[in-house]
């Protein structure tokens, strides 16, 4: 280890490197200080001292530099003047969202008049309701902004004063302060046919009746975490919209139809009411999460506990609230989240980095890839969690993902799977590892192993480094399990042998492809 005098002579760019590296990983000074404390509480730098280091006003001692180096999974010598050109650590500002768009050419086909005609026709032909399309628009808006809605965060903080955890009696006190009256009703879960034609159970959890009555199902009394969420959601509606009552009924179950609409009414034209209801469903849900898990204290809790889902027990909230809030408060922006019901439908989805869907969230697909963790968990009787490293070929090339999944039941008794995951390619690239090459190598190993394989030592080392810098415990557990190759659809399965018939067989070619094939043969 270098002496302090040597550090002084070689530290001209040290502060700049630490600052750029911190910004590359989307960490605040508070985040970096907290992670240093986790490594060594005694020798860790304070927020103010880190600020002085970054501004070149202080030079850390060798012990303190070693702590900072461990946080970023670097050798201490990396921070010296003669290591790594400055351009290699300058953070690159990314664009909004992670969803790839499409060029709207020719432009006249995408005019407002044409779209207003074409969209209802498209929805009618595909059987997509106006309400479903509205939810798709809201999800696209959410993903475009990377789940960052500071106005909703501030509104929740003004109500909850950043207290965490909030107890049921504190939530009831907020309800009383807003002038709401609570009435309890009894409604047991009933068998229904959901939108896919499958049997499930459904019941009304709660609803708001203007000007000031909140109706709650008696079942919530025995489930404090769900009671707190419903209260938080209706507090959000009353706070954001002055108790106007234009809010969907909150249901338990995967049936997404609007309980407030006329029976059997299925409009294939998205109207203003659909868009408004979908937006309010989203923003009230986001508010509820921010009220129960305020950004700064919740993020600090996650950092202390390495982003383990079981922190929901400390807070008295559901795993769903914790996993959805992870995607919103983490300094790492490349998250995704699924809430999946059997046999294969998604009730909720967030794709912060454009990850393909394992199946459609509007209806079942014929060839879902059965190797996604969320899909496998649906068919397993597993009360615990399942961390998985996956390799997926995307439009941007092969990518390495890691996810944590957990089996749960909704209030109506329907089993479903919650899954929170991240794209590891960006953090690998930030660390100077060739992420696309690592992903391609890991995919090749998995394909040779029939679809899954133990992670080779060299790739394992890089993934452990990424897990350390992200401070996410379940990545390390996933590394200890075999990695799996997954696909966006079974028809493009990369496994050997494939899970589905090869896509280039005569039976799977389209009529036009068979005609083109015949013409080529005739001309050759």
TrEMBL record:
Gene Ontology terms, MF aspect: DNA binding
Family as reported in the entry's similarity comment: Belongs to the short-chain fatty acyl-CoA assimilation regulator (ScfR) family.
Pfam families according to UniProt: DUF3612, HTH_3, Peptidase_M78
PROSITE patterns: HTH_CROC1
Domain HTH cro/C1-type: 18-79
SMART domains referenced in this protein's UniProt entry, alphabetically: HTH_XRE (SM00530)
UniProt cross-references to InterPro entries, sorted A to Z: Cro/C1-type_HTH (IPR001387), DUF3612 (IPR022055), IrrE_HExxH (IPR010359), Lambda_DNA-bd_dom_sf (IPR010982)
Species of the source: Pseudohongiella acticola
Domain of life of the native organism: Bacteria
Protein known as: MerR family transcriptional regulator
Segments crossing the lipid bilayer: none
């Amino acid at each position: 280890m270098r002496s302090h005098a040597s550090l002084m002579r070689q530290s001209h760019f040290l502060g700049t490197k630490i600052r750029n590296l911190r910004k590359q990983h989307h960490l605040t000074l508070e985040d970096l200080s907290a992670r240093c404390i986790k490594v060594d509480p005694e020798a860790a730098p304070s927020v103010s001292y880190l600020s002085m280091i970054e501004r070149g006003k202080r030079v850390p001692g060798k012990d303190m530099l070693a702590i900072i180096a461990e946080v970023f999974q670097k050798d201490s010598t990396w921070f010296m003047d003669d290591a790594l050109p400055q351009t290699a650590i300058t953070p690159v500002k990314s664009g909004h969202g992670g969803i790839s768009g499409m060029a709207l050419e020719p432009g006249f086909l995408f005019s407002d008049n044409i779209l207003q005609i074409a969209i209802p026709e498209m929805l009618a032909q595909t059987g997509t309701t106006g309400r479903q399309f509205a939810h798709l628009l809201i999800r696209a808006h959410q993903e475009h902004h990377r789940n960052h809605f500071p106005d909703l965060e501030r509104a929740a903080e003004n109500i909850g004063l950043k207290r965490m955890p909030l107890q049921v009696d504190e939530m009831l006190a907020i309800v009383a302060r807003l002038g709401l009256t609570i009435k309890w009703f009894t409604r047991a879960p009933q068998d229904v046919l959901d939108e896919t034609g499958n049997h499930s159970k459904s019941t009304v959890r709660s609803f708001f009746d203007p000007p000031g009555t909140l109706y709650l199902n008696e079942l919530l009394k025995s489930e404090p975490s769900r009671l707190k969420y419903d209260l938080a959601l209706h507090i959000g509606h009353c706070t954001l919209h002055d108790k106007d009552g234009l809010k969907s009924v909150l249901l338990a179950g995967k049936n997404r139809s609007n309980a407030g609409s006329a029976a059997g009414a299925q409009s294939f034209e998205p109207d203003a009411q659909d868009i408004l209801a979908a937006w309010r469903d989203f923003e009230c849900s986001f508010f509820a999460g921010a009220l129960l898990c305020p950004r700064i204290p919740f993020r600090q809790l996650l950092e202390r506990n390495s982003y383990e889902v079981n922190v929901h027990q400390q807070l008295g909230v559901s795993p769903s609230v914790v996993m959805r809030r992870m995607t919103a408060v983490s300094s790492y922006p490349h998250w995704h989240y699924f809430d999946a019901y059997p046999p294969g439908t998604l009730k909720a989805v967030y794709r912060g980095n454009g990850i393909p869907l394992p199946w459609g969230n509007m209806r079942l697909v014929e060839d879902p890839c059965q190797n996604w963790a969320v899909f496998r968990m649906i068919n397993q009787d597993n009360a615990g969690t399942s961390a998985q490293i996956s390799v997926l070929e995307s439009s941007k090339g092969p990518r390495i993902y890691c996810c944590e999944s957990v089996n749960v039941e909704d209030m109506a008794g329907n089993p479903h799977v919650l899954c929170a995951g991240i794209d590891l390619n960006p953090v690998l690239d930030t660390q100077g590892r060739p992420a696309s090459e690592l992903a391609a190598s890991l995919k090749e190993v998995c394909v040779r192993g029939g679809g899954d394989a133990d992670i080779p030592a060299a790739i394992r080392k890089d993934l452990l480094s990424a897990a350390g810098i992200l401070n996410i415990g379940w990545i390390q557990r996933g590394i200890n399990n075999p990695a799996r190759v997954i696909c966006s659809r079974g028809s493009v399965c990369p496994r050997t042998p494939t899970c589905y018939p090869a896509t280039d067989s005569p039976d799977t070619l389209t009529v036009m492809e068979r005609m083109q094939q015949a013409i080529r043969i005739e001309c050759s």
